[in-house]
Specification:
CATH class: Alpha Beta
Number of domains: 1
Protein name: Sugar phosphate isomerase/epimerase
Pfam family, one: AP_endonuc_2
GO molecular function: isomerase activity
Distance between the termini: 41 Å
Shape: globular
Strand order of the largest sheet: 1-2-3-4
CATH topology: TIM Barrel
Largest sheet: 4 strands, parallel
CATH architecture: Alpha-Beta Barrel
Keywords: Isomerase
InterPro entries: IolE/XylAMocC-like, Xyl_isomerase-like_sf, Xyl_isomerase-like_TIM-brl
């Protein structure tokens, strides 16, 4: 049997009482594991917004542990995976922090399934412009 070395990525999921971690717990989560070689984090901006996180602070605290960032917006009440700028997230300080994220991290536009293709193109353009 061949072994695959696929890292395990832990995401900041949930809101309205179902979240697994608050911001501080998420930022310190990997401190609890002695062998972090195959562990990393996924920070979802929409989930962070729903839980009133300071997203730029969370990015700064976890930047070396992040494997993936799910980029999406919302109104602060519903996890509706809106396009960047279509909700109430303040993106300017987030884009500044994203510029400091190590290259190993992947950015994913995690938009809802009925998102017009043009919105995906706009998101891609924003990422290229700011990153």
């Amino acid at each position: 049997m061949q072994k695959y070395r696929q890292p395990i990525a832990i995401e900041n999921i949930g809101h309205n009482g179902t979240e697994l971690f608050n911001q501080e717990e998420f930022c310190r989560l990997l401190d609890h594991f002695p062998d972090k070689e195959m562990l990393g984090l996924v920070l979802d901006t929409g989930h962070a917004n729903l839980n009133n996180w300071e997203i730029p602070e969370a990015l700064e605290a976890t930047k070396d542990q992040l494997l993936v960032i799910h980029l999406n917006d919302n109104d602060g009440h519903t996890d509706n995976h809106l396009a960047i700028g279509d909700g109430n997230i303040n993106w300017e300080p987030i884009f500044k922090k994203l510029q400091q994220i190590p290259k190993k991290c992947r950015f994913i536009l995690e938009y809802n399934t009925v998102m017009p293709y043009e919105k995906l193109q706009e998101g891609k353009k924003l990422l290229r412009e700011y990153l």
